[in-house]
Design brief:
CATH architecture of one domain: 3-Layer(aba) Sandwich
Number of strands: 10
CATH topology of one domain: Rossmann fold
Strand content: 5-15%
Helix content: 40-55%
CATH superfamily of one domain: Vaccinia Virus protein VP39
Bound molecules: S-adenosylmethionine
Length: about 400
């Protein structure tokens, strides 16, 4: 028998190695794309899927290893600890693990997309349905500026925390977080204490937002685990502070320059952004009515004093009765959303939409097909549908589509 070379060996030079766990076809596809468009230096500095480039460890690999996740999760449950350790290079690095937002992007995938789209410093990326601001965090890690918009004020808070925590003074945070009992007493009062929301210009507010997010995370965690908020809060806050601390240590060691983010609450149907001002859009809308983001985050939204009825009217995917009516309203809103994305993106700029279909719920209507059709009507040039399997949800949704378009004005 002739010696058999694995696919990875055939795709890349033998002095290159991929990060452990890079084994899905779409990941190999993106790794090959990174390999083709990035210079050797760029592969070392910013690639998503490489561990070794010409004998040198990449920045992504180094930072993930420097984050000391064992220490961060020393008090976490076996399940949580395993989840983060298994996702060390893919979902759990930097500040991505601070809140487990449902339906969030795979951060490593976003990093690869920014790379293959050849994003440059000085350019701006936008996610107009940003959820937990995964795109903003990834862009900022590459030194790129980002705008994140979501209809939910809770998402605004998550985005503020995840991006601010990339570059802060850890001593100030540790000082504020030192007295978790006192903080908890204030947070348990029905309305958010003044210093958690006021003083727009006060930099301290950002530090308190981290505590607030840890509290709101604890509220959800407590419901799921049937353990009390009192018992869990200090542990969650400790984990938040440790995550941020070890990321700060890692990024300072390797000298990472962090980009800026603008995190806003707003509606994709009426974006507070100038015409032709954005270089790249990457977004993922609700997959019709597969996840009810309002119901999911209701305790947190109520705590923050959000107008639930208004959100119910404005959140895409929540209106209508019966499948047909719901899909009608959904596509109508998505059609307007596409027009807004086209308006704010520069001519010839890439627009990427990640979407999956739950066939059973939609009675066979494929969301990605309809989005491609609507985009064509807006004159967006459809380039590619890269398919990504969804692990763990095989019965309801088997894959997502990463749809690549080019804006044409
Ligand atoms: C699939 S999630 C996005 C997750 C995100 N990619 C991440 O990494 O966390 C879809 C998001 O769309 C938001 N959304 C729904 N309707 C919206 C609207 N009219 N304008 C802006 N955002 C909206 C939801 O609040 C939800 O956070």
């Amino acid at each position: 028998m002739k010696f058999h070379k694995t696919l990875v060996e055939r795709l890349f030079n033998k002095n290159y190695q991929l990060i452990d766990g890079t084994d899905e076809i779409f990941e190999l596809d993106l790794a090959l794309w990174e390999y083709k468009v990035l210079s050797k230096k760029e592969l070392i500095d910013r690639s998503a899927y490489f561990k070794i480039v010409d004998g040198i460890e990449t920045m992504h690999y180094k930072i993930c290893n420097l984050q000391n996740l064992e220490e961060v999760h020393k008090k976490s449950s076996f399940r949580t600890k395993n989840f983060f350790l298994n996702g060390k290079y893919s979902t759990g690095y930097a500040t991505h693990g601070l809140f487990p937002y449902r339906g969030k992007f795979h951060p490593q995938l976003i990093r690869a997309l920014l790379n293959i789209l050849e994003i440059k410093q000085g350019q701006t990326v936008l996610d107009p349905m940003a959820g937990s601001s995964t795109l903003a965090v990834e862009a900022n890690l590459l030194g790129i500026d980002a705008i994140s918009i979501d209809i939910s004020p809770f998402c605004e808070l998550i985005g503020q925390v995840k991006t601010f925590a990339l570059d802060l003074d850890i001593k100030t945070l540790e000082k504020i977080g030192a007295n978790s009992n006192k903080l908890l007493e204030k947070l348990k009062k029905d309305i958010v204490p003044q210093y958690f929301i006021n003083n727009k210009d006060d930099k301290k507010k950002r530090y308190y937002e981290i505590v607030l997010l840890a509290y709101l995370d604890t509220v959800g965690f407590s419901e799921r685990s049937e353990s009390s908020v009192e018992k869990l809060f200090s542990r969650v806050l400790e984990r938040y502070i440790a995550t941020i601390k070890y990321f700060q240590i890692a990024r300072q060691k390797v000298g990472l320059k962090i980009g800026n983010s603008e995190i806003l609450q707003g509606n994709i149907l009426d974006l507070p952004i100038k015409d032709s001002s954005v270089d790249i859009i990457i977004t993922s809308p609700p997959y019709s009515f597969a996840i009810d983001y309002l119901k999911n985050d209701k305790p947190q939204l109520e705590y923050l004093g959000a107008n639930i009825d208004k959100l119910h009217q404005e959140m895409i995917g929540l209106q209508g009765r019966g499948v047909e009516d719901k899909l009608d309203i959904y596509f109508n809103k998505m059609n307007q959303a596409l027009a807004e994305m086209k308006r704010v993106a520069k001519n010839e700029s890439p627009i990427i939409i990640i979407i999956g279909t739950n066939d059973i719920q939609t009675k066979g209507v494929r969301l990605e097909k309809k989005i491609i059709e609507l985009s064509r009507q807006h004159g967006l040039k459809f380039e590619l549908n890269l398919k990504k399997p969804i692990l763990g949800l095989q019965n309801t949704m088997k894959e997502e589509s990463i749809l690549f378009f080019t804006n044409q004005k």
